Amino acid sequence: MVGVLMVAEKPSLALSIAQILSNHKCVSRKGFNGACSVHEWTGSFQGLQGVKFKMTSVCGHVNTLDFPSKYNNWDRVDPSELFYCSTEKKEATPKLKMPAFLAAEAKHNEFLVLWLDCDKEGENICFEVMNCVLDSMKRPQGGMRQFHRAKFSSITDKDIKLAMNTLVEPDENQSKSVDARQELDLRIGCAFTRFQTKFFQGKYGDLDSSLISYGPCQTPTLGFCVGRHDIIQTFKPETYWTIAVKVKTELSGRQLVLDWDRQRCFDKEVAQLFLSDVKSHKYATVTNISSKEKAKERPIALNTVELMRVASSGLGMGPHHAMQIAEKLYIQGFISYPRTESTHYSENFDLKDALRQHQNSSDWGAEVRELLSQGINKPKKGHDAGDHPPITPMRAASRDQLDGDSWRVYDYVVRHFIASLSRNCKYLSTVITIAIGDESFSMTGKKTIDPGFTALMTWQTLLEDDENLPTVNKGDQLMIDDVRLLEKQTSPPDYLTESDLITLMEKHGIGTDASIPVHINNICQRNYVTIGAGRKLIPTTLGIVLVHGYLKIDPDLVHPQMRSAVEEQLDLIAHGRANFKSVLKHTLEIFKLKFQYFVSNISGMDQLFEVSFSTLAESGRPFSRCGKCRRFMKYVMAKPSRLYCNTCDETLNLPQNGNIKLYQELKCPLDDFEILYVTAGGSGKSYVFCPYCYNNPPFREMRKDMGCNSCTHPTCTHGQNSNGVSQCVECEEGILVLDAASIPKWKLGCNRCDVIIRLFNDAAKVSVLDEKNCSECDAQIMKVEYKEGKSKLEEGELTAEGCIYCDESLSRLVEKHHAVLMRRRPNRQGTGRGGAGRGRGKPGRGRGGKRGKVPKDKMAQLAAYFV
Ligand SMILES: *[C@@H]1O[C@H](CO)[C@@H](O)[C@H](O)[C@H]1NC(C)=O
Ligand SMILES: *[C@@H]1O[C@H](CO)[C@@H](O)[C@H](O)[C@H]1NC(C)=O
Ligand SMILES: *[C@@H]1O[C@H](CO)[C@@H](O)[C@H](O)[C@H]1NC(C)=O
Ligand SMILES: *[C@@H]1O[C@H](CO)[C@@H](O)[C@H](O)[C@H]1NC(C)=O
Predict the structure, then answer these.
(1) Any coiled-coil ranges, and where (predicted)?
(2) Which of 139, 507, 636, 747 would suit a FRET pair with 392, their CA atoms being 20 to 30 Å apart?
């Protein structure tokens, strides 16, 4: 029997597409990786009958590009090596076991149909998938093509079935352009980021950012925001004068304010000449009245950039959030694919049919019915970028089907769509010209004739101010009531709004419709800009100093031309007009030279840092004693928090996002540093640690960033040998270790994963008994002691000893939780869609001590108490 494997980009898409292709007759099962389902049915394929179809999915990118792990050691690797060292594709999410899963499902199948999203990233994932299944598939008979690509823009019956009948070949050049972008961003971003992070964090204590990142897109994005800031800062207000005249009509006696045609005058003496001329008259004369019909044009079809702009300026939603919602609406079949540059409806798109879907809506049904009966207007000519059609609604939804923000985005997409087929807004614009001596003044007013599309896009409604205009005739005389000279000042422009920034990025070719929201999000997260009222982007001192530093050393690092030139090259690769290798080589050579120049000129940037930030020696407060010099080290609280010893000039990293305290002034037996305790609130992880061991692991099995609960010191009372209770109930490598500092909310925490076991709440003392193991499960025996009146033990006993898993009287006082995860230091910037390039800390692989192994059935038993 012939088999066809099909792969979509997300599990929910696989299900929707399978239901459409199988006419809702597919049978579903879970894949062995637990994350992706497989949907199966029988049908025909390319003239073959009784073909077995299998539809499944990946979860975004299968692979991520990274350096081999030896290059991810910041202390040992010179960042300039990152321009040429080897790279490797790693599994983007090892937990999903995606390559093995795909290979297993592909076995005995002859054909592969790729249903990845139809953009460059999607094309790249196609090749990742093909790589996984190549070896396990059978060759089709008779030289038929094995790998097929489906091209579609929405999850509708029509689109999906059409795509299935017009399969094409996957496009390797598009995929290559993504490979090139990933590699460039990884190498350039990491080299600069590592160098400047180490340089500046080693010197300053109040930078308040855990990573001083550079990104080929991120930095020009920041550059726009700082550029506007500089204009505001260097703006010198100028004084000007204007003549304000009020007149009265003879009939009604109503007072009217006139606008001076010269508007403003920057010379006071000249302004006074005009003033005395005007003042010498008693009457103003109406010299002309002109009324013209004008139009405010309906919008062109919606693309991603416009959606993000309106979401930010109209809905108050950041572009990153807005795109996540749009993507959800797409997957649910409510709107078409939301990542597109096109603003032109394709000729075969049935506009009327799409409109008819909405005629029963209680929100815009009336407008739709009217449009359908009067005939729709030809949409304005837009730009066809040849990618996806513009964003349109695909299915009618009502307010109660969608949650708040989803509804708001959907509502906008629908209104925009209907508006693009609606009439222009027509209005009458009236100008009354008035003369006083030789000076001209005027009054203007607008009156709506036909609201057209603004009936739908109500926020675009014209401000009518026609009622302010008097009824006058040419030649009428108006009595002058008041004349004065007003002194005013010019004002600087405002900070860029997010919507302005999106416009600038689009104009200068920084990022793509898919990555623009990611770059904006990044500069906020790195604390380079903050979002002010009206979603204005206000750069922080750090953001400003960075950009000024680049401008001082090498403006190319900030100016957008450099990046747009690179994006053009990438586009050439995508269209088969440039060679992948040579583009990569050429670009890396340029950036390597720029990097070297930057490194040797860094003092130029440092001079700017010196003025704005405090050195480590000046920051922080005395906290705990250094084991080497016995003097107090300083606790630097800004991000990243650190300990700094002034005497030894040594910096020790601390766990981030936790609250750090001294632990009874106890010392580490290995190095004499004072032991500290970190807690991340009631639901977070907590453990004691020695700040020196945390940075310089004392034993082979220990890695950096580990606490005493991972320390294999044979006798130390803080180590895992003294406090370990059993193997973790969830992960394979971890040990559950008593947090001896957690009194009175006692807990055990896994020293590898985020499992937390709470137990013996309010007990006065909890300890792990050495040398005593449970005879049933081999877990360490624990002892609990309560104060009078607080006991939760049976019959109010004050102390008990036993196994927390097997002794029923103790196990009922035990609960499992998951810690709220502490974030690790990411090692580089995110690039585009999820998978690619999000740093993950590697869990250590230390061998645990000889602790009890909890048998499976005991775990199940314990599970009964889990909340
Ligand atoms: C005066 O108004 C008429 C229309 O009423 C217009 O055609 C003409 O251009 C106007 N003249 C001036 C000088 O604005
Ligand atoms: C709208 O309502 C009419 C009458 O109730 C019904 O015939 C029609 O199918 C509905 N159209 C849509 C698109 O739901
Ligand atoms: C891909 O690019 C190569 C040149 O690098 C070109 O020869 C080839 O025709 C391109 N393929 C497609 C499908 O455009
Ligand atoms: C900048 O770097 C170049 C090249 O390494 C070097 O020749 C030059 O002296 C540096 N300039 C400054 C101001 O340090």
Answers:
(1) none
(2) 507
pLDDT at 668 exceeding the cut of 60: yes
pLDDT of residue 82: 96
Q: Residue 700 falls within a domain, yes or no? A: no
Which residue's CA is minimally distant from atom 6 of ligand 3? 576
Mean pLDDT of 199-213: 86
CATH assignment of the domain containing 356: 1.10.290.10
| Separation CA 730–CA 843 (nearest Å) | 15
* Residue 645, domain member (yes or no): no
Average pLDDT over residues 731-751: 89
By C-alpha distance, which of 774, 711, 714 is closest to 737?
Answer: 711
Q: What is the mean pLDDT of residues 687-708?
A: 91
Pocket test for ligand 2, best of 356, 357, 359 (most atoms within 8 A of CB): 359
CATH number at residue 246: 2.70.20.10
Per-residue pLDDT reduced to its tens digit, 489-511: 999 999 999 999 999 999 998 98
Q: Which helix (H) or strand (E) covers residue 750, if one does?
A: strand 747-750
With a Cβ cut-off of 6 Å, ligand 3 is lined by: 171, 173, 576, 579
Is there a domain that residue 667 lies in?
no
The reply to whether 664 falls in a domain is no
- C-alpha to C-alpha distances, 482 to 248, 282, 469, nearest whole angstrom: 9, 10, 18
pLDDT digits (tens, 9 = 90+) for 406-443: 999 999 999 999 999 999 999 999 999 999 999 999 99
- Nearest residue (CA) to ligand 1, atom 11: 288
Is 244 in the same domain as 230? no
Q: How far is the CA of 351 from the centre of ligand 2 (A)?
A: 17
> Among all ligands shown, which has an atom nearest to the Cα of 398?
2
As given in the structure block, the two tokens for residue 386 are 């040849």
Looking at the 3D structure of the chain, how many domains does it have?
5
Active-site entry in 337, 663, 692, 805 = 337
The Cα 752–Cα 742 span in angstroms is 18
